[in-house]
Design brief:
Layout: E1 4-10, H1 14-25, E2 32-38, H2 45-55, E3 59-63, H3 69-79, E4 84-87, E5 93-94, H4 98-109, E6 113-122, E7 127-128, E8 138-140, H5 143-153, E9 163-166, H6 183-195, E10 198-210, H7 222-241, H8 246-267, H9 272-284, H10 286-291, H11 297-308, H12 310-324
């Protein structure tokens, strides 16, 4: 039985998939299995999964009807044999020392989750470092400390990638498979609350490919409306459990909410009901948004425009979108 199960949900990422899988094959730590969960791809990605599985006994390929990445991760967990689990998005890739480094810190600390940080790379090779911090490492010993690092410093991200998990943490976890936008964040909140200890390393071991056409850069659908309501429920529950972090949690979710209107701008599909809810909520929390140190200045400006001058924001964002494609 392999010690680490690497799970890659796959959906229509044929141009990038081999790079992703090869980065697992190149790991200096070799006690792993790789589970490729094809989520109903139509571009030939499923065939690539089968080819790799036929060539290496450590790789298994599974094929399901399209249900979204959360369902694929859940499926992968059920099929995984390892004591530890890592997720990778199929258009991203890993540093060759990632598994060895993460596993070493897991053994050293007994943590439930060990995290590294990511480096962003776009299609033109432009590199950005959105997560860098200066501490040698950050150790969270309580759920509230994890929520602080997630919502205030943002060093603990809501992404399931960049993390090594103890497999037993997933028992009883709601993967939020019915919510296909923002489901990762909801899952990580649950896992962090169960982890006992979380270590965050300032090492860029995960390479995130930023591309036009990914889910996070797509246009508005009914899934965004569902996600907006989901964010509101999570925020209310977190504030109930961690009242001392009310300001941080509110500011964090405000940024999530604004992603809904930017999605509307990308495909000119404007949901008046959601826009009205968004406007009211932004106005209600505007003072907190403007005063909070973790909210970027440009995001504060966006919040003001969305709350009080939505047509201006939509006009400006549309111009930016046509110029950059993002």
């Amino acid at each position: 039985m392999s010690e680490i199960s690497v799970i890659i949900p796959v959906y229509n990422t044929k141009p990038y998939l081999s790079r992703c899988i090869d980065s697992v094959l190149k790991q200096t730590y070799e006690d792993w299995e790789l589970l490729l969960v094809d989520d109903g791809s139509t571009d030939g990605s499923g065939q690539i999964c089968d080819e790799y599985a036929q060539a290496d006994s450590r790789i298994k390929a599974f094929h399901n009807q399209n249900q979204g990445p959360a369902a694929s991760r859940n499926y992968g967990i059920r099929e995984a044999a390892g004591n530890f689990v890592m997720f990778v998005d199929s258009d991203d890739w890993l540093d060759e020392e990632m598994l060895r480094t993460m596993y070493g810190h897991m053994q050293e600390t007994g943590a439930g989750i060990v995290c590294c940080i990511f480096k962003d790379i776009d299609g033109h090779g432009k590199i950005s470092h959105p997560q860098l911090f200066h501490e040698e490492c950050i150790d969270c010993h309580t759920a509230e400390e994890c929520m602080y690092q997630m919502h205030h410093t943002r060093h603990l991200t809501g992404s399931p990638c960049t993390k090594l998990f103890r497999r037993e943490l997933f028992e009883g976890i709601d993967f939020c498979s019915n919510v296909t936008i923002g489901e990762d964040y909801a899952m990580i909140v649950q896992l962090a609350e169960k982890a006992g200890r979380v270590r965050i390393l300032p090492l860029e071991l995960y390479f995130r490919y930023v591309r036009k056409g990914s889910i996070s850069h797509g246009g508005y659908t009914n899934r965004h409306k569902q996600a907006f309501d989901h964010y509101m429920r999570i925020r209310k529950e977190l504030i109930r459990k961690y009242p001392a972090l009310t300001s941080d949690i509110t500011a964090f979710h405000t940024e999530y909410e604004m992603a809904v209107i930017t999605a509307m701008c990308r495909n000119d599909r404007y949901d008046k009901e959601v826009l009205n809810k968004l406007r009211r909520d932004l106005r209600k929390n505007m003072r907190n948004t403007l005063r909070h140190p973790s909210v970027p200045l440009y995001m504060k400006g966006c919040a003001v425009l969305i709350a009080y001058a939505q047509p201006v924001f939509i006009f400006l964002f549309r111009i930016l979108y046509h110029m950059t494609g993002r």
